[in-house]
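[09:14] KT: can someone run the structure on this one? pasting the chain below
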Amino acid sequence: MAAGEFQGDRRHEFPLELFRSALIAATSAIGYTPVYGMNQHRIERSLIDGNLDISILPSTGFDRRRLAYLPFPIRRGLLGLRLVLVRNDDVERFARIESMRELRQMRMGVAADWIEARRLPALGFNLVEGSYLSLFDMLRGGRVDYLTRSVGEVFIEMDNRSLVGDGLSIVPRIAMFYPLDDYFVAQRTQLSVLKVLSRGLSQLLRSGEYWSLFTRHYGSALLRTELESRRVFQVTGFGVDSGTPLDLFDILELRPTRGEFRLPPEVQRDEIGLPH
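[09:31] RB: done, structure tokens below
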């Protein structure tokens, strides 16, 4: 199970805990070993080559002909809810942005292996590619004008000064959204593991444990985001693969109640479909 691009990469804490909790809920004795130092391209290649059994990958863009996957966005689309990170001197300029057209005209930094690097240029975005670990240096050094970071990632990253450094800030009043999250993806030979996960995740949803786990990891970040005060630019045309359960990419429907997050009843689903 890939666990991040470096030891201590906290962006993968929720997927790992969700994976472990789903196995327990399914009363499975399947074990796993976290593997660090792998970007998205290497994860996909390792799964196809049989050097990795199961991991997470973005919900669109991987090779569905050669890999099995569980069609469940594990963070309900939180990966596609993006805040804008800029140099401190540019905060007010970006906070005044009123259209996606203005963002497209500026240079966005992306990791070369991200799905955004393949999808956003066709939508008119001006991209500059690097590696994940180099993006923050690129922004501080003026090689790019901004980064977009997931609500579930950006506060973790900003707290890691050795990663982000100084002089960068999150822009208030704006956000972006496109339908993207992570799926559990596995070798075709590991389809039985995905079926166990499907059973366990359904149990976690029915019991409410999924939402307790989600809130523990992301509730504070969603509150800090103050989404109601932001203009959310919807990135139309980003694209999803056939069969994507778009009703589960419902992060924008979340409402805080007593510090917890629940979806409106009409958009809840407590059964996870079988793997593809």
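[09:33] KT: thanks! The first helix runs from residue 13 to 25.
[09:34] RB: yep, looked fine to me
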